[in-house]
Amino acid sequence: MWILLEYAAWAIAALLLLWMVMDAARVNREFDEDVLLSSREGIDELLEHGDVPEAKEN
Asked: What is the DSSP letter of 42?
């Protein structure tokens, strides 16, 4: 019984590794390195333009 659980755990680990490698390759294809290494993303850009409701003053 324990042997089956061990093999199942190794199979799950291998699938997770395969998924992470495929996702890393997909992200590398879809985005430029400048975007991936930029610190200017997400909420910073929204705050800069005042698009976040919490950032607007009444």
From this structure: T
Considering the domain boundaries, does residue 1 fall inside one? no
Domain assignment of residue 9, yes or no: no
pTM, two decimal places: 0.56
Looking from the CA of 5 toward its CB, the CA atoms found within 13 Å total 2
Tens-digit pLDDT profile for residues 10-54: 999 999 999 999 999 999 898 887 777 766 555 555 566 665 555
Count of structural domains, the chain: 1
CA atoms within 13 A on the CB side of 31: 13
Show the domain range for 50: 32-58
